[in-house]
UniProtKB/TrEMBL annotation:
<dbReference type="InterPro" id="IPR035437">
    <property type="entry name" value="SNase_OB-fold_sf"/>
</dbReference>
<dbReference type="Pfam" id="PF00565">
    <property type="entry name" value="SNase"/>
</dbReference>
<protein>
    <submittedName>
        <fullName>Thermonuclease family protein</fullName>
    </submittedName>
</protein>
<dbReference type="InterPro" id="IPR016071">
    <property type="entry name" value="Staphylococal_nuclease_OB-fold"/>
</dbReference>
<feature type="domain" description="TNase-like">
    <location>
        <begin position="46"/>
        <end position="172"/>
    </location>
</feature>
Length: 272
């Protein structure tokens, strides 16, 4: 009887998760509903799973970087100039998604980034959200940055669904979620890291989340003072994270052990 109850609960949870993913993808359609009234922007070529070129420039550039996501990059130990299957799969998927459709660019920050690329969420005229599709297929990871807030919060459940199903890059150990104990092996790379916060401390203006007994060598998440207002707006107080298990994402740096600077609240998820 107990086994049946557990099975039913598991099926129920899976159904809920599937419904949530469907709602997220469907809820974005109205955002792009007016695309037909705008100039028809089309892709001319695709350079990578998160970058393509328009047939005509906007603001002086035709290169588009898909905001909020990162296509698979070869691991550090991959041979130089070697073809990486997941990078190829992501590029091919983006090419197929863009097709000959009219596109709408929706920036969540300055449209042109510091590399002179158009940075935006991309929607087809039929309402398909390009970033959402790539993340849900497991062909991109979510990267909070200039494009944060609502878009990132909608992408995270899509990524979680792909990760749970081991789709795309999530089936490859090169992109596995790291532990706080192993994070130091991946300095200079973008990673997802999970662990339990031992202590949250304010040192000077910043907040530090320590994952071990020795802050000089253990994994740490630093939250810059200038971003604490954004954390408050998101309803999160990092000083209350002591004892909580979390998942943080970002480029791992080396500073008194492995460290990630969580400049955006969406970079850190509190786990059950």
């Amino acid at each position: 009887m107990g086994g049946k109850a557990k099975l039913d609960m598991g099926v129920h949870r899976a159904a809920i998760a599937t419904s949530i993913v469907g709602l997220i993808l469907a809820s974005l359609w109205p955002i792009a509903a007016g695309a037909e009234e705008l100039p028809c922007l089309k892709a001319a070529s695709v350079a990578a799973g998160d970058t393509f070129t328009l047939t005509a420039p906007i603001e002086g550039t035709a290169t588009v970087r898909l905001a909020g996501i990162l296509a698979p990059l070869p691991p550090a130990n991959a041979p130089a100039n070697a073809t990486w299957p997941l990078a190829t799969a992501a590029r091919d998927a983006l090419l197929a998604l863009l097709g000959d459709y009219c596109l709408r660019l929706v920036p969540d920050a300055p449209l042109v980034d510091r590399y002179n690329r158009l940075s935006a969420q991309i929607f087809r005229h039929d309402g398909v959200w390009i970033q959402g599709q790539l993340v849900h297929q497991g062909l991109a990871r979510v990267v909070p940055g200039l494009d944060t807030g609502e878009n990132i919060r909608r992408l995270l459940p899509l990524e979680a669904d792909a990760r749970a199903a081991a789709r795309g890059l999530w089936a490859d150990d090169a992109y596995a979620v790291r532990t706080d104990a192993t994070a130091g092996r991946f300095i200079g790379t973008f990673q997802l890291v999970e662990g339990t916060v031992r202590k949250a401390a304010r040192v000077g203006p910043n907040v530090y989340l320590n994952f071990g007994d020795d802050w000089r060598s253990d994994f740490t998440v630093v939250i810059p003072a200038k971003t604490l207002a954004a954390w408050a707006r998101a309803g999160s107080d990092p000083m209350q994270l002591g004892g909580r298990r979390v998942r943080v994402r970002g480029v791992i740096e080396s500073l008194n052990g492995a460290m990630i600077e969580a400049a955006e609240p969406e970079m850190l998820e509190v786990l059950p």
